[in-house]
Every structure is written in C-alpha cells, then in structure tokens.
C-alpha cells in the first residue's frame, strides 16, 4: 500500500490487536525513521516494515525513449513538454543503507516483496531479531523463501491488489487464486503461512484459516479508512468499484500489479510488451499523474485494489480490525 498510507494506519491496526505495517518502498530513510518514531510514541505493540527486493535492471535508453514517445501525446494533451519531464518518485530496492537503518531501528517484523535481499543483508536483518516475512505467489517461490530462512510465508493469490510478489518467473500463467494457493503452500513448507489476496471480511478470513493459514494479510479492505491518504476522487473511485473493475497491468510501473482500470490502462494495456522494466516505466507517467490529479483526474493514477474491493468499509482502522475479529467469532461454529 505504498503511497496511500504510513504510520497512522499501522498504529490503529496494531493498537486494535493486528500487525500494522508501514510500506517503505517510496520512503527515504529519514522518512522511515520518522514513521517508526511516530509508531513507538503511540503504541508499544508490534509493527511491520515492508520493503521491495527487486533488482534494478540495466537502463535501456532505446526502450525508455520509445516508451516516452508512446506517452508523448498524453503529455502534450496536459500541456507538458515530453522532452523536459521532471523526475518522479522511484521505488528503491532494499540495500545496505536500508539495512543499516534497520539495525538501528530494530523493528519487530520486516517483510519483503519480490523475493529476499542478498544473503549477507538478510543475515544482518535476521541478526536484529526481527521476524522475517516474504511474499510467494507459487509453491516454488514459497519453497525458495523457506530454504533461505524466512520465518513465515505470505501466500499472495491472484486476487490481491497492488504489485504481484512474483519473482522466480515472469509468466503470469503461474498465478493462481488464494484459496488454491494457500493449501498448496501449507502442504509444501514447514512454516506458518499467511494468506493474502481477496480477504476482506469474516467469511474470507475463516476460509483461509480453514485451509491451513495461520493468519491473514488484509490490504484493500482498509483503503477507505480515514487513516489512509487517498484523495477524494480516489476514495470515490473505490466506492464505485466492483470486482470486475480490477485488472492486472504492467503499464503503470513495468511490473504486474492489480488495480482499478483507468484510461491509460485501457488504451496502452493492460499488459504492454514495450513498457520498460520496473521501476523505470513509471518515470514518464509521474508528471502525467501529478498534472491530472490537480483537477481530480485519475486517468494516469495507480488505483491499486484487489478483487474484493467492494467489501471495503469506511470505518476507522481500529474499529474495522475489531469488527472483523468480532464477525469471525460470531461465524465460528460453536
């Protein structure tokens, strides 16, 4: 949920008995330090810091130039010079500087997306005493993570919003739904499995637990909570969304992610073979997004959401957490 929430949501969830998380992929080290300080001022409960572990690909100037040419009509439409675009935010992979930060901050839980850091960095993180979680979208990925020392596996089904955690292959045909993936991963690894994707109410929580999950990870269901930083237009788009309104696309970042269909996704994708590799596809889109969002236009915005987006509720995050627990207790057979 990078870009739409920070410590406020994490504090509320942790105080209510869940494990709140701060997405760090778009934050500078100083910002991460500030968010952790805010959490520790507000709660003594555990929290999670999440990082991306992608490998920055070699720059491909020809491919990036072709991508900018493809986007140029949109830039001109919004009064932007396609040959003079400001730099936008990027998604930094986990590196030695961030590892230094974790050794100082010592968060109780650290989670990774797109695999794991290189072994020396991972060993340093583990030496802080942190519990290590990482996302797997296939049984092979789950085994790979288990073999390298994860403490628990996040089994991310195809329904999940945001970036796919896929990292051992680029073949999207390998991606399956949460209710199929969870029991396969449970059978394949001797670690706790946390179900992720399409889980947004008591029915889906209990279904995942019945299939062997030790816990669930919930994202999209919290998007309408007041602790997120969504714009009014983004909130309305989520209110209006139905499950069939989401799609897996690589147009916005160069890596497959599930979100609401926008104009850019309809016209260039949802999958674009010519998009530069993650995260470089996003750079020339960032100015488009900024210019459009000033007028409430979401044509170029990443509206990440899972297939259970229609189950999101406009409740404070702590109240939503407690409500989900109470609803699960009410549905459990006596």
Walk me through the structure.
The protein is an alpha/beta fold and 334 residues long. Helix content is 38%, strand content 13%. The chain folds into 2 domains: 1-54 and 91-226 and 313-334, Alpha-Beta Barrel (TIM Barrel); 63-88 and 242-304, no CATH class. The chain has 12 helices and 10 strands. Strands 1-2-3-4-5-7-8 form a 7-stranded parallel beta sheet. Strands 6-10-9 form a 3-stranded antiparallel beta sheet, with no helix packed on it. Helix 1 packs parallel to helix 2 and helix 8 packs across helix 12. The two termini are 36 Å apart. The mean pLDDT is 95.
Quick summary:
With 334 residues, the chain is α/β, with parallel strands linked by helices.
Layout: helices, strands, pairs:
Elements: H1 7-15, E1 20-23, H2 29-42, E2 47-52, H3 61-77, H4 96-105, E3 109-113, H5 119-127, E4 131-136, H6 139-147, E5 152-156, E6 162-163, H7 178-188, E7 193-196, H8 202-210, E8 215-217, H9 232-240, E9 246-249, E10 257-260, H10 263-268, H11 285-293, H12 317-331
Parallel strand pairs: 1-2, 2-3, 3-4, 4-5, 5-7, 7-8
Antiparallel strand pairs: 6-10, 9-10
Helix pairs in contact: 1-2, 4-5, 8-12
